[in-house]
Amino acid sequence: MDLPQFFALEASSADENAFPIAVAWSLADGTIKTTTICPDEDWNPQENHDHNVELDVLFDQGASPTDVCLEMNADLDGVSAFCNFSSYDDELLDKLCDSARSEPSFEPEHWQAAFQGLSADEIEERFNFKCRELDLYPETSEDRVRVMVFVAAEDQAP
Q: Using CA atoms, how far apart are residues 142 and 21, in angstroms rounded to an integer?
């Protein structure tokens, strides 16, 4: 059973000049990939981050925006990739792709489109229930994707 594919990004802060610091996405089999992102110098990382974000870790362990875009595009090529667009993921995706001088090879769509026949309230209720049930934190990109995959799998179950 192929599942819808999801993605989510984390921001460096709640500021409008925030930049992407982590991304997670799922494959059709439900596998989740995640990585931290090395800040681009154009993002002014010294000025646009929350004090809880450890810039040294991002610079030392983060993948370059180009590498992140290449891998996401390879994994999500030609599919609709669903996102709940919390924390302005669409703007973060634009910043990531602009930095990599790339365009997504997938079609970003709001995650409600992955759940035909369910209202926005029902989807949100299932998402919140699954977060509580699994003790996951929707503030992190990996947990947001994990919850979306679980909700999709339950939606497709007979």
A: 12
* Residue pointed to by tokens 């610091």: 21
Residue burial 78-90, b: 16+ Cβ < 10 Å; e: rest: ebebbbbbebebe
Query: What beta strand segments (E) does the chain contain?
Result: 5-11, 20-26, 32-36, 80-83, 107-110
Tell me, what's the pLDDT at 15?
85
How far apart (Å, rounded) are the C-alpha atoms in residues 4 and 152?
7
Global pTM reads 0.93
Contact between 48 and 18 under an 8 Å Cβ cutoff? The reply is: yes
Long-range contacts of the stretch 42-46 (C-beta < 8 A, 24+): 42/99, 43/12, 43/17, 43/19, 43/95, 43/99, 44/17, 45/12, 45/19
Chain-wide mean pLDDT for the chain?
Answer: 92
